[in-house]
Fold this sequence. Notes:
This protein has one domain (6-24, 32-173, 186-295). The N and C termini lie far apart (88 Å). 38% of the residues are buried. 34% of the residues lie in helices and 12% in strands. Helix 3 crosses helix 11 (278-293) and helix 10 (259-268) crosses helix 11. The strands form two sheets. Strands 2-4-6-5 form a four-stranded mixed sheet, with helices on both faces. It has eleven helices and six strands.
Amino acid sequence: xxxxxxxxxxxxxxxxxxxxxxxxxxxxxxxxxxxxxxxxxxxxxxxxxxxxxxxxxxxxxxxxxxxxxxxxxxxxxxxxxxxxxxxxxxxxxxxxxxxxxxxxxxxxxxxxxxxxxxxxxxxxxxxxxxxxxxxxxxxxxxxxxxxxxxxxxxxxxxxxxxxxxxxxxxxxxxxxxxxxxxxxxxxxxxxxxxxxxxxxxxxxxxxxxxxxxxxxxxxxxxxxxxxxxxxxxxxxxxxxxxxxxxxxxxxxxxxxxxxxxxxxxxxxxxxxxxxxxxxxxxxxxxxxxxxxxxxxxxxxxxxxxxxxxxxxxxxxxxx
Length: 319
């Protein structure tokens, strides 16, 4: 499964011939909700960072954390070209910030973003017609059947589904049950790793409502580059993941990814990949975030007693 199945693309292409979707707001337009002041937690709070990482990270059925390997190719269906380009540009910018390459125009999409005014029917039909694309009957490459059903039933403005490929720790693809040669075996390191194969992200135009398009684009970029827990509790943290909960609460949402979001992605893409347990990866992410978010050291105070110039130095003769 190196790319999204052509069958899925054909199934989703009915959007282009179907009812027109509600156009997203102009990037310069914002919410009309009343602004409130939100105090973010201290950036050096280790416990807060650890809680954030634990809450937002969704692991696969093997309880390990996945990520993209080297290169991505995002594609958009159902948005006007101008909006689609803004979305693609934001994903590309955030991907490049963590060291990923972005495929050239015409590449085969492995990140497919679909916008529609009737996502419920769309998702049900897409999963029914393309079970292999959603790994419906394959264990170990997604969050599992229960999570897939939650994805199908979701009423969220944006929903996402990641499918991984089977890779050895050196990046070699393997087939489950096949004999493979491994370099070493250990109690800490694993012989395999979790690389994303593709992700499907669905935007419901009616549920998204009126938000800054720049914020929506960064929200989509965040859930494109990381497998985020859709039920994550990020209250009290300044994060793009609060976009829709803030809006519902009457709080002015952030305009894009925050320092916390960027630090999380940076930590994810520098964490160890060949470990047996996902909690070790989460610890790597938390440590990286703690370093990234730590305030710069304060400059050392100058010694006022020290002479500032040759003229101010005392006369050694005692005069």
